[in-house]
Request: fold
Amino acid sequence: MATRSDLDLAHRLADAAGEAIRPLFRGQWSEEQKSDRTFVTEADQAAEAAMRRLIEAERSADGIIGEEYGTRNEGAGRQWVLDPIDGTTSFIAGRPIFGTLIALVQDGFPVLGIIDQPIARERWAGRMGEPTTFNGARVSAARCRYLADAVLATTTPHQFSDHEADHFMGLAKAVAERKIIYGGDCYNYGLVASGHVDIVCEAGLKLHDFAALAPIVEGAGGLMCDWRGEPLHAESAGDALAIGDPARLEDVLEAMNLA
Reply:
């Protein structure tokens, strides 16, 4: 389980990442393309390095799984999972809807999560067994009686394979046409926790993309699962649903032709 001390450390990790990111936003920085064709910037690297230094100093027995600098203490039961900038394309484009993701994973399951938007200084925090907070105040996901009324978000349909896109389009046809949002990365999941978005549907995610999100969505009364309705964990395939009203899970799976 995550302790209050773990949560305090997670907040300080987010502070350190933000201090590394803010001076470079809409400024001058270097970038390169990785082997998977995604981009990494100087800000990604500086933010992760700052967080790793703190963890290594204060939780030397814990593991680290970072998007940019890999794994440390791979066999540890407690793993800090870091994505310094989730939404690097938005950072590059000067759009402040990216976020720093910080998770603590215990024996493969996320028990603590932070979404931090360092430019707007917006922060969602979730710890298993406690309510999710937004800038320190408790938040709740919205109830949604009918799927047709739902606000649906995904970062980009280009992330889906043809087969996955068919499932997504089934869901898209079941919600209101003008309530579909594209773009947003991790920011969308914070909006689910705060009651502004009802459903996020994505695929192709890695552990550092989703580990922080589950404690936040679920601590706000929502549901985070894979496309089979199963809880997310370190071995999950990477398809994910965030649903503000858990009562709509069967409706969502049915619309996606997965029920």
The chain has two domains: 4-138, 147-255.
